Amino acid sequence: MTHQSHDVGLAYLDYNATAPTRPEALAATLSAMRTVGNASSTHRSGRDASSRVDLARRQIADLLNCSHGEIVFTSGATEANNLALRAAFATGGKIVTGRAEHPAVLETAKALTAENSGSLILLPVDEDGLVDMEAFHAALATNEVAIVSLMAANNETGVLTDLAPIVEAAHELGALVHTDATQIVGRLPIDLAETDVDLLSLSAHKFGGPQGVGALFVRRGISLPYRPLLFGGGQERGWRAGTLNVAGIAGAGAAAEAARKALPAEAAHIAQLRDVLEASLVEQAGDCRINGALSQRLPGVTSITFHGAPADAVLAAMPDVAASEGSACSSGAPSPSHVLLAMGRSREEADSTVRFSLGYATTSHDIDRAVVSAVRAVRQVRTALAVPL
């Protein structure tokens, strides 16, 4: 099977926004779309649909090394984040999260605590994007924390969070731990038998599944009554009502299985390509800065500030490269990246930062094309703005 699933004339380096659909996922999705049954129906077509859902649940559980009964299907990580925070906050207590979290966590936390701002504690990060652990322990010391929500890997910089000490400290004081693992699942190993988080969110389209499907891991045995966002037929053990998206779920499962089998080789290959991309851009573009803890990042992500070259202009000047100004979820927003601002970058620096994100189908040709185009674009923009080269 070929991995080519995007414009052949485009160097696609925007995997953190969405990954090209894996051929295995496409095949599973199309196959499921040919079945008529509702997964809740008891007749033969319904049982066929239900079996596809069961298979996908096991495939995703295998990727995370958890029980298939701990997987709740959702429309994506945004919904999963909302479900997790809503359920935990309803038990009473504060929400602790970081200033560099994805808006799906930050905005949910702010909405839940809108009537009591003291119920939300936002943790600062250092210049490398790492959570301030002193502030974290100070937050826990209040003994009033319901849930700690910190992402496993940042969507803009790729910076990884060491979850083990966070989980240990939170559990000692009776707080739950949720992680938005959207960017790490299928890209680096995550073993839920060892990483003792209580709740975890993911989206299939980040690791090659279809868009519009994700999951929430809910660890068996935790004291957490579900608080559904949608009421109806009681599917997914009451966590999420509504007819299951069988085709999307089947594709998600197939993508999870493919990612699990290829993960070690893919991660090593992607990291090598990312290093070539960074080294070439630093050498040839000049006056740039790589953002984030260099030794604690996802293998395929680089956030680069091209000083004196606004990112929107750079991206417009390299139409044969797909990259991003930061989070695709906030593209077009007038404000600069909250992640980079939290790391102490100036507004000008944040506005001049491009995120390149690589994945399973990235080739050395993609990297070569991106380097040539990005260097040309940066020089063109700086010349137009009379920035010394």
From TrEMBL:
EC supergroup of this enzyme: transferase
Keyword field contains Iron: yes
Record-annotated Aminotransferase class V domain positions: 12-369
Gene3D superfamilies the record matches: 1.10.260.50, Aspartate Aminotransferase, domain 1, Type I PLP-dependent aspartate aminotransferase-like (Major domain)
Record's catalysed reaction(s): (sulfur carrier)-H + L-cysteine = (sulfur carrier)-SH + L-alanine
Key words, A-Z: Iron, Iron-sulfur, Metal-binding, Pyridoxal phosphate, Transferase
Cofactors demanded by this protein: pyridoxal 5'-phosphate
Name of one Pfam family that matches: Aminotran_5
Record-linked InterPro entries: Aminotrans_V_dom, Aminotrans_V_PyrdxlP_BS, Cysteine_dSase, PyrdxlP-dep_Trfase, PyrdxlP-dep_Trfase_major, PyrdxlP-dep_Trfase_small
EC number, UniProt record: 2.8.1.7
Family of this protein: Belongs to the class-V pyridoxal-phosphate-dependent aminotransferase family. NifS/IscS subfamily.
The name this protein goes by in its record: cysteine desulfurase
